[in-house]
Design brief:
Blueprint (H helix, E strand, L loop, with lengths): L5 E12 L8 E13 L4 E5 L6 H8 L7 E6 L2 E2 L5 H4 L3 E4 L13 H12 L5 H14 L16 H13 L5 E5 L7 H18 L2 E5 L3 H7 L2 E6 L2 E7 H6 L4 H8 L55 E2 L6
Parallel strand pairs: 3-8, 3-9, 6-7, 7-8
Antiparallel strand pairs: 1-2, 1-4, 4-5, 9-10, 10-11
Amino acid sequence: MTEPVLIAENLTQEYVLKGGLFGKDRIVRALTDASFQLEPGKTLAVVGESGCGKSTLARCITMIEEPVAGTFMLNGTAAGPETRADLRTTVQIVFQDPYGSLNPRQRCGQILEEPLVINRPDLSAGERTRRAREMLDLVGLRPEHFDRYPHMFSGGQRQRIAVGRALMLEPKVLVLDEPVSALDLSIQSQILNLLVDLQERLGLAYLFISHDLSVVKHVADDVIVMYLGRPVEVASKEDLFVHQRHPYTKALLSATPVADPMNKKERIKLKGELPSPVNIPPGCPFSPRCWKATDICRVDRPDLTTGPHAVACHHPE
């Protein structure tokens, strides 16, 4: 059995919301008790509504932020203050906006070389340029693109540059924070195929964050469904798309469009709004919107079960 390249246990992140001159500070619970493992060559998708903690999880795993509780290991090394600088080259991130994540004042070649300038000071300028040109070819761009600025590229080409920059330090884990949501559908498929090809070539592990379940169905091996910062269902892609055990997952999948006019399915419309992470309701946080909620759901928060298809629900399917 392959050893996991990433092991996270009970990752929790909170933010302090200042109350102003006379108000009290409040706590925003953005991420609570997220645990998972990720193996080389595999893709773990994290899905859920906006505000469910997906991007917070990405920032914690890439060490942009330090979680307030919980631990995680990268390549067998625990992430901590003394190891964080070395581990940052092990995990890299590709952001959602392919234009906003690139420096408009730098040429494509400079963007690709920058990670080496910062993290590989022993390399000569010629070696950095050689590696950058090789990466340009690996992500499907032409040699003449090396000296062009980001505004001279299409959205798909910019995302290819962003992927190439993330791979310059030869990471083991790539965090993909909605990498295709800002692209046209035809370009989305090209970038997804590129990511699949790179994973097969380099043995990369992907933490794929998305709200588009049709994309997740195409690329993921396993899926974590999150609600208000907590994982509520964890399963393989095959199990999750065939049999959803949590009502929230069932509602999410019912809202996914199907490109088959003969395949009609019932849309589950959730009542009410997503509760505030500042004031999470007692018991199961999904209970105010759940059609299966009973009295126990409103007072007792269910724990995530163990096993290949885990669920946090008092009345699972």
